[in-house]
Amino acid sequence: MKKRFLVMLASMLVVLMGFSGFQLWRYFTAERETQQQYDGLVEQIKSPPPSASGQGAPGEEPKPEWTVNDQYGPLFEENPDMLGWISIEGTALNYPVMHTPGSPDFYLRRNFEKQYSEAGVPYAAEGCSVSPQSDNITIYGHHMKSGKLFGALDGYKNEAFWREHPIIRFDTRAGFGEYEVFAMFKVIPADFLYHSFINAAEQAEFDEYVRRCKSLSFYDTGITAAYGDELITLSTCEYSQEDGRLVVVARKIREGGA
After folding, report:
1. Considering only CA atoms, which of 132, 106, 96 is closest in space to residue 228?
2. What is the pLDDT along the chain (258 residues), one digit of tens a residue?
3. Among candidates 250, 134, 123, which has minimal Cα distance to 185?
């Protein structure tokens, strides 16, 4: 009887190990295919020519300004749901951002081609707008353990990482944009409805959002935001607490770099 039980137990362990191995294989295969797809999208982004600044040589007519559509036009045409492109130099975060107001979570489990994908595509919250731009645009992305998608945001838990990667590039249909990171924190959404802040009814509401973000921040960046600034809030899962979120908030760099 004991021998029979041990055989059954061993069989169950073999089945469980086989299932776990299959799940790991499935996960890494899906991640590799997803990354290959994103690499293909990156290849379609056009680099600005040397004359993109609009300044020609002395005596020449100024060259036309380089536009967002010049750079990302093929992707906007391929999928009109694309709101823009987000990237952090020196990290794996380099992806399109989608926006489907009528079905806000459409890209939670779909790829750029609208086919099923466990990884999904980063997407903006339902009520956000880029023309005119909302006071705050919340962007959601999956936290991949490999560091892909918004897994790269884990680095902001360390101040040294922030100092090396202080800028988030977020180009939208409305224009190019660079954003300076000023707060990063983990939170349970029920304790702070950061994702609900889109447009401030008055300055006090904007100031309170900024104050709350900075008070929760892992460390003080010495940077703040003032009423009238345009913000982006990046949100992903954080696994040290149940239903936790890792949040990174940045303000658009003002003209003149102020």
Report:
1. 132
2. 656 655 565 556 655 555 445 344 344 455 666 778 899 999 999 988 876 655 555 555 556 789 999 999 999 999 999 999 999 999 999 999 999 999 999 999 999 999 999 899 999 999 999 999 999 999 999 998 877 899 999 999 999 999 999 999 999 999 999 999 999 999 999 999 999 999 999 999 999 999 999 999 999 999 999 999 999 999 999 999 999 999 999 999 977 655
3. 250
Q: What is the DSSP string of the chain?
A: -HHHHHHHHHHHHHHHHHHHHHHHHHHHHHHHHHHHHHHHHHHTSPPPPGGGGS---TTSPPPPPP-HHHHHHHHHHH-TTEEEEEE-TTSS-EEEEE--TTSTTGGGSB-TTS-B-SS---EE-TT--BTTBPSEEEEE--B-TTS-BGGGGGGGGSHHHHHH--EEEEEETTB--EEEEEEEEEE-TTT--GGG--S-SSHHHHHHHHHHHHHHSSS--S----BTB-EEEEEEEETTSTTEEEEEEEEEPPGGG-
Question: What is the per-residue burial (b if ≥16 Cβ within 10 Å, else e) of 100-135?
Answer: beeebebbbebbbeeeebebbbbbbbeebbbeebbb
Residue 143 vs residues 5, 24, 204, 233, 238: alpha-carbon distances, Å: 41, 17, 32, 15, 8
CA-CA distance, 119 to 165, in Å (whole number)? 24
Structure tokens at 234: 């990046």
